[in-house]
């Protein structure tokens, strides 16, 4: 398979992005080469997401697009990977014969064999939850990611079963990778030149690995990685309020490299809704965590996820969510209208009126976005630390992020890539800060 080309189109969360990179690492052992030209590949993978909306339809739409791209060319081996593949499995072959391989997220270790054994017109499907074998296999495959900022999955799957969510069905039960394997992979990334590692998990702070009667938690990984002098920043996502333990909170004072930015989804500001959603935490639990973190480090900022219009949401419930975002000025957030997902408990409940849900989403987003604009505006004329990631395509500008993960665009030079530098912010909008480099000033 020497010099065959592979193209992966990735949808969904950061874990899909990590997985796509690891699939590239694996198939490169077969001689496959990553291409950025999507109409010239021997193997085309759609790495899909099933979290909301018409996820399934989007996948068929994408396949239709690929079919057109290859109309007068040799058909690529078409693989559907990710959460839609897991949820829909062989049903997809019936509807779309163009698909050759269905590959669920816990079967990625089989990708090389599937490609080697692939015979034209023969369908292959792998959707077992074989998480231990998967990570066991990938522990032997070097992580070649050499971007300035890289993801590293430490935990996968979910046992929490929020009533709206499809993830426990698509990613399977919670699994935590062995501590030493995570450190070994982090070392590879650091050797490759990575300066920022974001530790990933569906419930990343539920990470728990037992070895010789010692429990390793997320805090152990953070404190261990903190020692590597070449590593500049550590982040983690996505955390769950129920697993925000004291040892993790203490990392915000023990680790200088852990960024003071906490993405902590709450979903709703109403206890009644949280109970209906099966979140198993209250608004007060969340506010407690907020206060404990602010106490340990005043500098910490929060972001969150909100579901608007969950079945049964009254005007009062909605107003409580609104009240919460007045109390906590989230630095950025994701907010979506509830989308019924096949197989979940909430999908069988009566939906609230669509136009009311839309109205509520507009109101909540207006408030969240105006907070964001205000926070970004307050950074104007300040000198801030930016980790420089890359030069921007088609522009003579550079791209980096501040400690709160906000994108920063500025005049810089190639030597600054991978460095933490000082930038003076001159301008801002809802999502981005714009500035210029302060010469001869080293970042903290
Ligand atoms: N594990 C994380 C947690 O517990 O908050 C979130 C993981 S999920 C991939 C990301 C976000 O998608 C959730 O926080 C939720 O806001 C949103 N989400 C999940 N299911 C949804 C649904 N059925 N409709 C709308 N949003 C949904
Ligand atoms: Fe989904 Fe809830 Fe699990 Fe998060 S904790 S992945 S929202 S079921
Ligand atoms: Fe989507 Fe699966 Fe991630 S449903 S958000 S790709 S875990």
Would you mind describing this structure in some detail?
This protein is an alpha/beta fold and 444 residues long. The protein folds into three domains: 4-130, Rossmann fold (3-Layer(aba) Sandwich); 134-375, pyruvate-formate lyase- activating enzyme (Alpha-Beta Horseshoe), CATH 3.80.30.20; 383-442, Nucleic acid-binding proteins (OB fold (Dihydrolipoamide Acetyltransferase, E2P), Beta Barrel), CATH 2.40.50.140. The protein contains 14 helices and 21 strands. The strands form six sheets. It has a six-stranded parallel beta sheet with strand order 2-1-3-4-5-6, sandwiched between helices. Strand 1 (5-10), helix 1 (14-28) and strand 2 (33-34) form a beta-alpha-beta unit. Helix 9 (218-225) packs parallel to helix 10 (246-254) and helix 13 (315-327) packs parallel to helix 14 (354-378). The mean pLDDT is 96. The structure holds S-adenosylmethionine, iron/sulfur cluster and FE3-S4 cluster (F3S).
Topology diagram in text:
Elements: E1 5-10, H1 14-28, E2 33-34, E3 43-48, H2 55-69, E4 77-81, H3 82-88, H4 91-95, E5 101-103, H5 111-117, E6 124-126, H6 131-138, E7 149-153, E8 155-156, H7 167-170, E9 175-176, H8 179-192, E10 196-200, E11 208-211, E12 214-217, H9 218-225, E13 233-237, H10 246-254, E14 261-263, H11 271-276, H12 283-296, E15 301-308, H13 315-327, E16 332-337, H14 354-378, E17 383-391, E18 398-401, E19 407-411, E20 420-428, E21 433-442
Parallel strand pairs: 1-2, 1-3, 3-4, 4-5, 5-6, 7-10, 10-13, 14-15, 15-16, 19-21
Antiparallel strand pairs: 8-9, 11-12, 17-18, 17-20, 18-19, 20-21
Bound molecules: S-adenosylmethionine, iron/sulfur cluster (SF4) and FE3-S4 cluster.
